[in-house]
Amino acid sequence: MNVSKALTKMVRYIVLVIFFCLYILPFILVLLNSLKERTEIISNPLSIPKSINFANYLSAMEKMNFANSFMNSLIITVFSVALITIFSAMTAYVFVRIQSKLNKFLFFLMVASMIIPFQAIMIPLVQIYGSIGFLNSKWALIYMYIGFGASLAVFIYHGLIKSIPLELEEAAMIDGASRLQIFFQVVFPLLKPTTMTIVILNVLWIWNDFLLPSLVLIKPEERTLPLSTFYFFGTYSVDYGLLMAGLVVTIIPVIIVYLFTQRYIIQGVMNGSIK
Q: Where is the ABC transmembrane type-1 domain (predicted)?
Protein backbone atom coordinates (compact mmCIF):
# COMPACT_ATOMS: atom_id res chain seq x y z
CA MET A 1 0.00 0.00 0.00
CA ASN A 2 2.78 2.39 0.93
CA VAL A 3 4.67 1.42 -2.22
CA SER A 4 1.58 2.17 -4.32
CA LYS A 5 1.14 5.59 -2.72
CA ALA A 6 4.81 6.42 -3.20
CA LEU A 7 4.64 5.35 -6.85
CA THR A 8 1.52 7.46 -7.43
CA LYS A 9 3.16 10.46 -5.81
CA MET A 10 6.27 10.01 -7.95
CA VAL A 11 4.23 9.78 -11.15
CA ARG A 12 2.36 12.96 -10.23
CA TYR A 13 5.62 14.73 -9.49
CA ILE A 14 7.12 13.67 -12.82
CA VAL A 15 4.02 14.80 -14.71
CA LEU A 16 4.10 18.18 -12.95
CA VAL A 17 7.79 18.61 -13.78
CA ILE A 18 7.11 17.80 -17.44
CA PHE A 19 4.26 20.31 -17.64
CA PHE A 20 6.38 22.92 -15.87
CA CYS A 21 9.21 22.43 -18.37
CA LEU A 22 6.81 22.71 -21.30
CA TYR A 23 5.36 25.89 -19.78
CA ILE A 24 8.68 27.58 -18.97
CA LEU A 25 10.47 26.58 -22.21
CA PRO A 26 9.16 29.50 -24.34
CA PHE A 27 10.27 32.03 -21.71
CA ILE A 28 13.75 30.47 -21.55
CA LEU A 29 14.06 30.54 -25.34
CA VAL A 30 13.07 34.21 -25.47
CA LEU A 31 15.62 35.05 -22.78
CA LEU A 32 18.43 33.08 -24.43
CA ASN A 33 17.75 34.47 -27.91
CA SER A 34 17.65 38.02 -26.57
CA LEU A 35 21.37 37.63 -25.83
CA LYS A 36 22.29 36.43 -29.34
CA GLU A 37 23.03 38.17 -32.59
CA ARG A 38 20.52 37.84 -35.41
CA THR A 39 22.60 35.38 -37.44
CA GLU A 40 23.09 33.13 -34.41
CA ILE A 41 19.35 33.09 -33.73
CA ILE A 42 18.53 32.13 -37.31
CA SER A 43 21.20 29.43 -37.47
CA ASN A 44 20.29 27.77 -34.17
CA PRO A 45 17.49 29.30 -32.07
CA LEU A 46 17.59 26.47 -29.50
CA SER A 47 21.26 26.80 -28.61
CA ILE A 48 22.88 28.54 -25.64
CA PRO A 49 24.45 31.92 -26.55
CA LYS A 50 28.14 31.73 -27.43
CA SER A 51 28.69 34.94 -25.47
CA ILE A 52 26.58 37.14 -23.19
CA ASN A 53 25.75 40.31 -25.12
CA PHE A 54 23.41 42.97 -23.75
CA ALA A 55 23.67 45.19 -26.85
CA ASN A 56 20.25 43.98 -28.01
CA TYR A 57 18.67 45.42 -24.85
CA LEU A 58 20.23 48.84 -25.30
CA SER A 59 19.28 48.98 -28.98
CA ALA A 60 15.77 47.70 -28.30
CA MET A 61 15.09 50.21 -25.54
CA GLU A 62 16.30 53.05 -27.75
CA LYS A 63 14.37 51.95 -30.83
CA MET A 64 11.10 51.34 -29.01
CA ASN A 65 11.42 54.61 -27.03
CA PHE A 66 11.22 52.60 -23.84
CA ALA A 67 10.83 55.46 -21.35
CA ASN A 68 7.85 56.99 -23.18
CA SER A 69 6.20 53.63 -23.87
CA PHE A 70 6.72 52.54 -20.27
CA MET A 71 5.05 55.70 -18.97
CA ASN A 72 2.12 55.23 -21.37
CA SER A 73 1.65 51.64 -20.20
CA LEU A 74 1.99 52.69 -16.56
CA ILE A 75 -0.55 55.53 -16.83
CA ILE A 76 -3.07 53.40 -18.69
CA THR A 77 -2.68 50.43 -16.34
CA VAL A 78 -2.78 52.40 -13.07
CA PHE A 79 -5.79 54.56 -13.95
CA SER A 80 -7.72 51.69 -15.57
CA VAL A 81 -7.17 49.29 -12.68
CA ALA A 82 -7.93 51.92 -10.03
CA LEU A 83 -11.18 53.01 -11.70
CA ILE A 84 -12.29 49.43 -12.44
CA THR A 85 -11.70 48.49 -8.80
CA ILE A 86 -13.49 51.45 -7.23
CA PHE A 87 -16.45 51.63 -9.62
CA SER A 88 -16.99 47.86 -9.61
CA ALA A 89 -16.93 47.63 -5.81
CA MET A 90 -19.43 50.49 -5.52
CA THR A 91 -21.65 49.00 -8.21
CA ALA A 92 -21.65 45.56 -6.58
CA TYR A 93 -22.45 47.17 -3.22
CA VAL A 94 -25.50 48.90 -4.69
CA PHE A 95 -26.65 45.69 -6.37
CA VAL A 96 -26.41 43.75 -3.08
CA ARG A 97 -27.77 46.30 -0.62
CA ILE A 98 -30.52 47.88 -2.73
CA GLN A 99 -32.84 45.05 -3.65
CA SER A 100 -34.93 45.88 -6.70
CA LYS A 101 -35.90 44.25 -9.98
CA LEU A 102 -33.92 46.87 -11.89
CA ASN A 103 -30.73 46.11 -9.97
CA LYS A 104 -31.18 42.36 -10.44
CA PHE A 105 -31.70 42.87 -14.15
CA LEU A 106 -28.64 45.11 -14.46
CA PHE A 107 -26.50 42.63 -12.53
CA PHE A 108 -27.50 39.69 -14.71
CA LEU A 109 -27.00 41.88 -17.78
CA MET A 110 -23.43 42.64 -16.69
CA VAL A 111 -22.75 38.96 -16.01
CA ALA A 112 -24.21 37.98 -19.39
CA SER A 113 -22.01 40.52 -21.17
CA MET A 114 -18.92 38.53 -20.17
CA ILE A 115 -19.76 35.84 -22.74
CA ILE A 116 -19.53 38.31 -25.64
CA PRO A 117 -16.06 38.06 -27.24
CA PHE A 118 -14.25 41.33 -27.86
CA GLN A 119 -13.54 40.33 -31.46
CA ALA A 120 -17.29 40.42 -32.16
CA ILE A 121 -17.60 44.11 -31.29
CA MET A 122 -14.15 45.58 -32.01
CA ILE A 123 -14.94 46.77 -35.55
CA PRO A 124 -18.21 48.56 -34.64
CA LEU A 125 -16.46 49.94 -31.55
CA VAL A 126 -13.65 51.51 -33.58
CA GLN A 127 -16.06 52.81 -36.21
CA ILE A 128 -18.38 54.47 -33.69
CA TYR A 129 -15.70 56.05 -31.51
CA GLY A 130 -13.59 56.96 -34.53
CA SER A 131 -16.52 58.87 -36.05
CA ILE A 132 -16.75 61.08 -32.96
CA GLY A 133 -12.99 61.62 -32.70
CA PHE A 134 -12.62 59.59 -29.52
CA LEU A 135 -9.65 57.48 -30.63
CA ASN A 136 -5.89 58.03 -30.42
CA SER A 137 -5.97 58.93 -26.74
CA LYS A 138 -4.85 57.17 -23.58
CA TRP A 139 -8.00 58.35 -21.81
CA ALA A 140 -10.23 56.83 -24.48
CA LEU A 141 -8.42 53.52 -23.98
CA ILE A 142 -8.83 53.78 -20.20
CA TYR A 143 -12.55 54.42 -20.68
CA MET A 144 -12.85 51.27 -22.81
CA TYR A 145 -10.91 49.17 -20.32
CA ILE A 146 -13.34 50.22 -17.58
CA GLY A 147 -16.22 49.00 -19.72
CA PHE A 148 -14.62 45.67 -20.57
CA GLY A 149 -13.21 44.98 -17.09
CA ALA A 150 -16.09 46.03 -14.85
CA SER A 151 -18.36 43.01 -15.42
CA LEU A 152 -16.00 40.38 -14.00
CA ALA A 153 -15.01 42.63 -11.10
CA VAL A 154 -18.65 43.32 -10.20
CA PHE A 155 -19.41 39.60 -10.32
CA ILE A 156 -16.52 38.75 -7.96
CA TYR A 157 -17.29 41.60 -5.55
CA HIS A 158 -21.00 40.74 -5.52
CA GLY A 159 -20.42 37.32 -4.00
CA LEU A 160 -18.22 38.63 -1.18
CA ILE A 161 -20.33 41.66 -0.26
CA LYS A 162 -23.33 39.36 0.25
CA SER A 163 -21.41 37.63 3.06
CA ILE A 164 -20.67 40.85 4.97
CA PRO A 165 -23.05 41.15 7.97
CA LEU A 166 -25.51 43.99 7.59
CA GLU A 167 -25.18 44.68 11.33
CA LEU A 168 -21.75 46.25 10.75
CA GLU A 169 -23.27 48.86 8.48
CA GLU A 170 -26.21 49.46 10.80
CA ALA A 171 -23.82 50.11 13.69
CA ALA A 172 -21.86 52.61 11.59
CA MET A 173 -25.10 54.27 10.52
CA ILE A 174 -26.16 54.67 14.17
CA ASP A 175 -22.82 56.40 14.81
CA GLY A 176 -23.75 58.94 12.15
CA ALA A 177 -21.80 57.62 9.16
CA SER A 178 -23.16 58.38 5.71
CA ARG A 179 -23.69 55.71 3.07
CA LEU A 180 -20.43 56.73 1.35
CA GLN A 181 -18.50 56.61 4.63
CA ILE A 182 -19.96 53.20 5.43
CA PHE A 183 -18.77 51.85 2.09
CA PHE A 184 -15.22 53.23 2.21
CA GLN A 185 -14.59 52.83 5.96
CA VAL A 186 -16.47 49.62 6.75
CA VAL A 187 -17.21 47.57 3.62
CA PHE A 188 -14.31 48.29 1.29
CA PRO A 189 -11.54 47.36 3.79
CA LEU A 190 -13.19 43.95 4.23
CA LEU A 191 -12.85 43.37 0.48
CA LYS A 192 -9.04 43.52 0.52
CA PRO A 193 -8.30 39.91 -0.62
CA THR A 194 -10.78 40.19 -3.47
CA THR A 195 -9.55 43.66 -4.35
CA MET A 196 -5.97 42.36 -4.61
CA THR A 197 -7.15 39.58 -6.92
CA ILE A 198 -9.00 41.99 -9.19
CA VAL A 199 -6.03 44.37 -9.24
CA ILE A 200 -3.58 41.60 -10.18
CA LEU A 201 -5.77 40.08 -12.88
CA ASN A 202 -6.44 43.45 -14.46
CA VAL A 203 -2.79 44.52 -14.30
CA LEU A 204 -1.78 41.34 -16.12
CA TRP A 205 -4.49 41.85 -18.72
CA ILE A 206 -4.08 45.58 -19.39
CA TRP A 207 -0.28 45.71 -19.28
CA ASN A 208 0.08 42.85 -21.78
CA ASP A 209 -2.86 43.77 -24.01
CA PHE A 210 -2.03 44.34 -27.66
CA LEU A 211 -5.27 44.18 -29.64
CA LEU A 212 -7.30 47.01 -28.11
CA PRO A 213 -4.39 49.52 -27.93
CA SER A 214 -3.51 48.70 -31.55
CA LEU A 215 -7.02 49.78 -32.56
CA VAL A 216 -7.13 52.93 -30.41
CA LEU A 217 -3.59 54.32 -30.20
CA ILE A 218 -2.34 55.36 -33.64
CA LYS A 219 0.31 57.99 -32.88
CA PRO A 220 3.78 56.57 -32.07
CA GLU A 221 4.11 58.75 -28.97
CA GLU A 222 0.92 57.23 -27.50
CA ARG A 223 1.95 53.60 -27.93
CA THR A 224 2.28 51.17 -25.04
CA LEU A 225 5.15 48.70 -24.54
CA PRO A 226 3.47 45.77 -26.36
CA LEU A 227 2.76 48.06 -29.33
CA SER A 228 6.34 49.34 -29.35
CA THR A 229 7.69 45.84 -29.95
CA PHE A 230 6.08 46.06 -33.38
CA TYR A 231 8.93 48.40 -34.42
CA PHE A 232 11.12 45.33 -34.84
CA PHE A 233 8.97 43.87 -37.61
CA GLY A 234 10.08 45.08 -41.03
CA THR A 235 8.28 44.61 -44.33
CA TYR A 236 10.41 41.67 -45.38
CA SER A 237 12.45 40.81 -42.28
CA VAL A 238 12.38 40.69 -38.50
CA ASP A 239 15.24 41.61 -36.18
CA TYR A 240 14.72 38.72 -33.80
CA GLY A 241 17.45 39.73 -31.35
CA LEU A 242 15.92 43.15 -30.73
CA LEU A 243 12.43 41.66 -30.71
CA MET A 244 13.33 39.15 -28.00
CA ALA A 245 15.05 41.82 -25.92
CA GLY A 246 12.01 44.08 -26.31
CA LEU A 247 9.71 41.28 -25.15
CA VAL A 248 11.87 40.63 -22.08
CA VAL A 249 11.89 44.27 -20.91
CA THR A 250 8.14 44.44 -21.57
CA ILE A 251 7.16 41.45 -19.43
CA ILE A 252 9.65 41.92 -16.57
CA PRO A 253 7.58 44.57 -14.67
CA VAL A 254 4.39 42.53 -14.69
CA ILE A 255 6.24 39.33 -13.74
CA ILE A 256 7.70 41.11 -10.71
CA VAL A 257 4.24 42.32 -9.67
CA TYR A 258 2.79 38.85 -10.11
CA LEU A 259 5.52 37.09 -8.11
CA PHE A 260 4.97 39.36 -5.12
CA THR A 261 1.16 39.17 -5.19
CA GLN A 262 0.26 35.75 -6.64
CA ARG A 263 -0.89 34.35 -3.27
CA TYR A 264 -3.86 36.72 -3.29
CA ILE A 265 -5.31 35.47 -6.59
CA ILE A 266 -6.78 32.09 -5.60
CA GLN A 267 -7.78 33.39 -2.17
CA GLY A 268 -9.67 36.34 -3.62
CA VAL A 269 -11.42 34.37 -6.34
CA MET A 270 -12.58 31.75 -3.85
CA ASN A 271 -13.84 34.42 -1.45
CA GLY A 272 -15.90 36.03 -4.17
CA SER A 273 -17.30 32.90 -5.75
CA ILE A 274 -18.35 30.55 -2.94
CA LYS A 275 -19.85 32.95 -0.43
A: 70-261
